[in-house]
Fold this sequence. Notes:
With 658 residues, this protein is an alpha/beta fold. It is 49% helix and 10% strand.
Amino acid sequence: MEKEIKKKKDTKVLDIKEATICEATAQMLKKAEKDGVETAFHRANTMKACPIGADSACCKHCSMGPCRLNAKDPYGKVGVCGATIDTIQARNFARMVATGAAAHTDHGMSMLDVFREVVNGNVKDYTIKDPIKLEALAKEIGIEVEGRETEDIAKDLYKELERTYTQVEGEIPFMKRVPEKTLETWRKHGVVPRGAMREIMEMMHRTHMGVDQHYENITKQSTRTALSDGWGGSMVATEISDILFGTPTPVRADVDMGCLKEDQVNVIIHGHEPNLFESMLDSVSDPTLIKAATDAGAEGINLVGMCCSGAEMISRHGIPHAGNFMSTETVLITGAVDAMGVDVQCIKQGLVKVAECYGTKLFTTNPRAHIEGAEHIEFEEHEPRKCTDAIVEMAIVRFKNRTLPVEIPNIKTTGIHGFSHEYINYMLGGTFRGSYTPLNDNIINGRIRGVAGVVGCTNPRVKQDYVHVELVKELIKKDVLVLQTGCSQISLAKAGLYKPEAAHLAGSGLREVCETVGMPPVLGVGSCVDNSRILIAAAEMVKVGGLGDCMADLPAAGAAPEWMSEKAISIGHYFVASGVYTVFGVTFPIVEETKFHKHLFEGLEEVGYGKWGFAKDPREMARLMIAHIDKKRKALGIDKARERVLMDMSDRRDLKAA
Ligand code: NFS
Ligand code: SF4
């Protein structure tokens, strides 16, 4: 450790105040420096981002290159093969979409695998927890349900949903959920997805050297691929997880590192697929393991989540959440984590070294994701407890042998999580029947100005949580209702915006609605695959009526203010393709003033999609989103209503007449 401290002296010193607004993370960063431990914050501080890559002005798709173009003079040069800046950027962008879509889709397909095995009776550890949702979903996509056994319906549902991934030709099942006019636009442009496997395969083919070399045509396939994620792979992941593990309803839960307990065996699950976490929940509730823990001198076993499977578990079961993506290394610095089990996506390789420094046991569990230096215990759906029990046993051993002092930041915040689209429908509806009508009415009468999705990662290139928090505060102040997922949800939960009392931070109109319904001004809907819930909610709003006839008409906008992953690009692009103005922060991998830039930031909107936007500053981001929402209100003829706020019947008649 001493050697590392000495080394650090010659490098740039990390300014912790500029690195994060998360107090617990800041405390642990200070401790890290005392302990001579390095984190991604430190590395981001000394790693200068490659400027050519940042502009997406390089190509390494063949060995005649890699070719680098000049962002200052984008049309001054082409690649060895003649590829222009637009081709190169569109191809790089397309591959990010393909990778992100593949991640979500492979995750969704894994959930569907579990579902199939449960239905066939081969997996016994999970059951169908929400048969009502199963039936409703089956009915929605055209499966006969009357008088049939759940098991039979489930078999048909499996077969039907499998098409989301494997179908060679024709539209995927969830196209039935897309508002008619939005679907019409997609059909017109030829971007309705077939199976995700096919779309991703074609995307990879088209971006190979010497294939698709028109940025507009490449983008068309990016759109089709992204849609196979949002309305395909991700949506199946969400729906099947709800059916297997329960559909979220509001639940009170704690976030932040104060969720760790010094006198208990602390186990963290960090990753994306809920089945690992669900089985771990069984393991930590097992009397034999609890007894082993108390025999080792612990008060019990404390299970805590991180990142997206954590966001799912907080939403579904109220399991405490220790922090988002940029806190996964720092949480280990507490010395309190006895074991961390990880599966896929957003698992920093840097965790291995930090875990080593504090004697934390780090386990990989998924055959897709081993990490050098971490122990691998494979998680197998037919016998899931073998893996999760083993992790708990090792955690108990580590607890018994704790030697280093434990320092847990005494910080945690309570809030309400778990707003599935079904619950939003129920909550806003009347006594007898759920409905999105009151939401639409409140948008039409101007109490709610519009709806925003604020989602995505944290990224050490910007101050952790700061952009999320400032953006959301600004939006709710201006009466925009915010829906959230993933790491962004945790940023705002830590900042206290998931308490119903946070309604006082909202503008008067939104505040009134929140107080009437008893909801916080910010609604957490789950993990990143659960962005599909936002799509479904938006589609419902269109179907209810009064806010235009396609998703592009809605007074809505999206943002990923601190994004870092390729999955975020896929999500951003399916929101854009669905008709939403989507603003990204941090950096955008593109050279401005190129045709490709113009295409993403303007051209797509002109042909009926949404469009991309970019801003680093949260207030500027809010300004762009609100301007867009107001533009849509104006186009709908509901911009006048806002001045009056309260409406009576005659106002409504006037509106309809206008
Ligand atoms: Ni989403 Fe979840 Fe977090 Fe970003 Fe990573 S955990 S899937 S990619 S960092 S929000
Ligand atoms: Fe260069 Fe063209 Fe090869 Fe890309 S595909 S590396 S631009 S020669």
